[in-house]
Amino acid sequence: MFRVSLTKAPLSHPVFPSIKNVQSRTVTTTVTCNVSRRPDIPSPRGKISTPQDFLKAIGRSSETKLSIDSWDAFWRTSGWDMKNAGLSIQDRRYILWSMEKFRQNQPIEGFAHEERPKKKIRGRGPAVQFGKRIRSRRDR
């Protein structure tokens, strides 16, 4: 619900008193929102009854970094709490995304995926491509 009220009153200018009929406007807004900020806490289902079971089911190795024993405390955990626990941004995003999917009653097998393996080659690419050694084109 929005409520806006405008009032116009002839006043003299505060800096230049000789100026007459200056109109001032007062805007008042009222916003009410019925949406709760905290989403519902889902009940445990299937093989998942603890936060550790949930983290193992979504396939992240972060279950050792995040140590929460209570189911309710796990679902009230925010991204800031996970950051303070030492999780990387990718792990935090994935865990929060998975928690929302679980809240929406989607099966874990449908959205969970394993973590990407680390790159074996650093830099811009392999030193050998198509059977030929790649050399730098810069002057040495």
- Determine Rg (CA atoms, Å): 29 Å
N- to C-terminal separation? 70 Å
- Measured as a percent range, the helix fraction is 25-40%
**What's the helix-strand series?**
EEHHHHHEE
- Annotation field: number of helices: 5
In total, the number of strands is 4
- Low-pLDDT residue intervals, each spanning 5 or more residues: none
- Output the structural class: alpha+beta
Percent strand equals 5-15%
- In which order are the strands of the major sheet placed? 1-2
Global outline: flat
Q: Could you tell me the mean pLDDT?
A: 76
Q: Biggest sheet: strands, sense, closure?
A: 2 strands, antiparallel
What topology does this entry show?
Blueprint: E1 9-11, E2 22-24, H1 51-58, H2 71-75, H3 79-85, H4 89-103, H5 108-111, E3 128-129, E4 132-133
Antiparallel strand pairs: 1-2, 3-4
